[in-house]
Amino acid sequence: MELQDVNVRHRINGSQLFSKDTVYALTGANLTVRAGETVGIVGESGCGKSTLARTIVGLQQPAQGRVLFKGNALWEMSAQQRRVEFGRNVGMIFQDPSTALNRRLPVRLIIRDPLTVHGVGDTAARDARVRELLDLVGLPLSAADALPTQLSGGQRQRVAIARALALNPSLLVADEPTSALDVSVRAQVLNLLLQLKEELHLALVFISHDIQTVRRMSDRIVTMYLGRIVEELPSEHIPQGIRHPYTRALFSATPSIIEEIHPIPLDGPVPSAVHPPSGCPFHPRCWKASAECATSMPPVEVLSRMPMRTVRCFHQLTRPGEAPEESLTG
């Protein structure tokens, strides 16, 4: 999967009666997800993570830019081509299984639905596939006749994962897959995703607010801020290899029993996506910002391609653990 200079904008009701505002949800996004790779997406709420996910799975058509799957442009395909060549190869796990699953349907119909829509096999073959998927995600066969409301949160998310895997996709997008679950079952779902990724050789895009979880799950980390990708680097290079001040601040705020932590406070709220700041969108909160940052957008610098490392910053961090003086002394 590849995104090339993708822009997504939404129109919303404005502050004035009958007026409309434009939300710049995704701007100039360039991203490649290779076969078998796990890419983690991190950033504060409202930074564009879910919009990126919806764009990857074809639920959101960009205003500009191209989305390529196996070299083919998604939105240049016919609707039939998208359904067959793309829709069957990409699955998505949504944030809240309570709302993502039809509470009126039994589990077997929920899981079987993608098979029915795409005309895969006959009734007997579909029922056999349902049983196979239930076993794959660790649910008993008795769950097939249960309604989602009769299952626990962890079991519902396993049903959602089974449905996403029904058509044997090569790419799976997980948008905050554990945020609605109790702490006690999060580890079970995460371990299941890791296990399935290895067994099925899936490419995985994993989105979460839990930065340490993303780090554990991912081969590569992508940091987003106000609709832009500002840095990407291998998870094994964190924290020493971080170059962008925002990524440094995010990871400095996560507790660790292994590494010494010096939290970096970010002053002020996240700017509005309707009226983004000029220049670098992070400059109003950045301790390294200069006059240049307020007037010009930093270009994307490719630090290496194997492994992929990019950063969008005029004043990159060059020393491991580099941070504002006040965060180190206070």
UniProtKB/TrEMBL annotation:
<keyword id="KW-0813">Transport</keyword>
<dbReference type="GO" id="GO:0055085">
    <property type="term" value="P:transmembrane transport"/>
</dbReference>
<dbReference type="InterPro" id="IPR017871">
    <property type="entry name" value="ABC_transporter-like_CS"/>
</dbReference>
<dbReference type="GO" id="GO:0016887">
    <property type="term" value="F:ATP hydrolysis activity"/>
</dbReference>
<dbReference type="GO" id="GO:0005524">
    <property type="term" value="F:ATP binding"/>
</dbReference>
<dbReference type="InterPro" id="IPR050319">
    <property type="entry name" value="ABC_transp_ATP-bind"/>
</dbReference>
<dbReference type="Pfam" id="PF00005">
    <property type="entry name" value="ABC_tran"/>
</dbReference>
<dbReference type="InterPro" id="IPR003593">
    <property type="entry name" value="AAA+_ATPase"/>
</dbReference>
<protein>
    <submittedName>
        <fullName>ABC transporter ATP-binding protein</fullName>
    </submittedName>
</protein>
<dbReference type="GO" id="GO:0015833">
    <property type="term" value="P:peptide transport"/>
</dbReference>
<comment type="similarity">
    <text>Belongs to the ABC transporter superfamily.</text>
</comment>
<dbReference type="InterPro" id="IPR003439">
    <property type="entry name" value="ABC_transporter-like_ATP-bd"/>
</dbReference>
<dbReference type="InterPro" id="IPR027417">
    <property type="entry name" value="P-loop_NTPase"/>
</dbReference>
<keyword id="KW-0547">Nucleotide-binding</keyword>
<dbReference type="Pfam" id="PF08352">
    <property type="entry name" value="oligo_HPY"/>
</dbReference>
<feature type="domain" description="ABC transporter">
    <location>
        <begin position="1"/>
        <end position="251"/>
    </location>
</feature>
<keyword id="KW-0067">ATP-binding</keyword>
<dbReference type="InterPro" id="IPR013563">
    <property type="entry name" value="Oligopep_ABC_C"/>
</dbReference>
